[in-house]
Fold this sequence. Notes:
By secondary structure, this protein is an alpha+beta fold. 58% of the residues lie in helices and 12% in strands. The protein has helices spanning 16-29, 32-43, 48-55, 59-71, 91-110; strands at 46-47, 75-80, 83-88.
Amino acid sequence: MHLSPAQDAHPRTPGEEQFALAAELLALLGDRTRLTLLHALSSEEADVTTLTEVCGAARPAVSQHLARLRLAGLVDTRKEGRRVIYSLRDGHLRRLVDEALNVADHRLSDRPPHD
C-alpha cells in the first residue's frame, strides 16, 4: 500500500486527548453502515427513509446508527414538519470519509489480478 505525504498533516504532536477522540471517531467509522450513512450525507442532507434506501439496512438499525452519530456530534438534525433531516456536522468529516474510501480504492487497485 502506498501512502502519499499528507498535504494537511497535523501541525503538532497530538496529546492523549486528541488520540483518544481520534480513536473514538475511527471506531465509529469502522462500521460499514455508519460509513455508508456518512458518505450519503456528505453529498446532501436526508431523512431516515432516504438513508434506509441508500444503505439497504433495516430502518430501526439505521435509526440507531444515526442516533449514535448524532450523540457523537458527527451529524446534525433539524425538523421539517414531522420528518427529521440529518446532515454532516462539518467538512472535516466529509474529507475523512473521502480519504478512507480513497485508501480503499488504492488497496483494491493494488491487488494482483485473480486467476
